[in-house]
């Protein structure tokens, strides 16, 4: 669960949420203002979150997490490449829409997996008597790690350029996909006892297993 919670943070959702206006101002889009994008981003995020809640039991936690990791990483990579080219002083006026589109796609892909699955898994793997403690510890770690991720973003942005932290976040988010495939069991439709039994098995044996 530690890695899954970290994957949420290192996918840069909190960073985008808190710095979206400044990030898009840096992108210098010719098509839409950062203020409007912020409103649309919040709306898209809300719709995606509600939609994700309706499909997570249909498709399962694992596949949503894997797909979300790869798509979210691609969105972050698109933002990284755009800012890198801008840093190298290429004329990007003809594709200044790219960061806005990538951010919107990011909101959807994040909420359909990375944004919801770790929360659901945290509630499923702990026994009732440990659930409150486990979720409290997870929330506390999330808050502390959020501060660390923000500080890392600001440091890398100021020291090396805004494209560098997004390259890092894209890479870390991509790694979440193989990790989930190798080590995270599918908990859809399982009782607590079944989940606990699966967790006791060697993680490498979960490759290719269904249910």
UniProtKB/TrEMBL annotation:
Keyword terms: Membrane, Transmembrane, Transmembrane helix
Chief place of localization: membrane
PROSITE patterns: MFS, SUGAR_TRANSPORT_1
InterPro entries, sorted: MFS_dom (IPR020846), MFS_sugar_transport-like (IPR005828), MFS_trans_sf (IPR036259), MFS_Trehalose_Transporter (IPR050549), Sugar_transporter_CS (IPR005829)
Membrane topology annotation: Multi-pass membrane protein
Compartment annotation: Membrane
Transmembrane regions listed in the UniProt entry: 31-56, 63-85, 97-121, 133-154, 166-184
GO molecular function: transmembrane transporter activity
GO CC field: membrane
Sequence ranges assigned to domain Major facilitator superfamily (MFS) profile in this UniProt record: 1-188
Highest taxon above the source species: Eukaryota
Protein name in UniProt: Major facilitator superfamily (MFS) profile domain-containing protein
Species this protein is from: Acanthoscelides obtectus (Bean weevil)
Species lineage: Eukaryota, Metazoa, Ecdysozoa, Arthropoda, Hexapoda
């Amino acid at each position: 669960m530690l890695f899954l919670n970290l994957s949420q943070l290192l996918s840069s959702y909190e960073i985008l949420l808190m710095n979206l206006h400044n990030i898009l101002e840096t992108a210098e889009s010719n098509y839409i203002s950062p203020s409007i994008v912020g409103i649309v981003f919040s709306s898209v995020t809300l719709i995606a979150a509600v939609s994700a809640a309706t499909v997570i039991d249909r498709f399962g936690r694992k596949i949503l997490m894997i797909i979300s990791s790869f798509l979210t990483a691609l969105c972050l990579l698109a933002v990284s490449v755009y800012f890198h080219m801008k840093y190298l002083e290429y004329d990007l006026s003809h594709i200044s829409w790219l960061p806005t589109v990538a951010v919107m796609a990011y909101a959807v892909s994040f909420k359909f997996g990375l944004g919801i699955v770790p929360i659901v898994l945290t509630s499923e793997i702990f026994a009732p008597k440990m659930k409150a403690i486990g979720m409290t510890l997870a929330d506390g770690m999330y808050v502390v790690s959020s501060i660390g991720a923000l500080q890392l973003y600001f440091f890398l942005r100021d020291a090396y350029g805004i494209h560098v932290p997004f390259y890092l976040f894209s890479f870390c988010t991509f790694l979440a996909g193989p990790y989930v495939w190798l080590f995270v069991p599918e908990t859809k439709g399982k009782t607590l006892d079944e989940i606990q039994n699966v967790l006791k098995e060697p993680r490498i044996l979960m490759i290719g297993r269904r249910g």
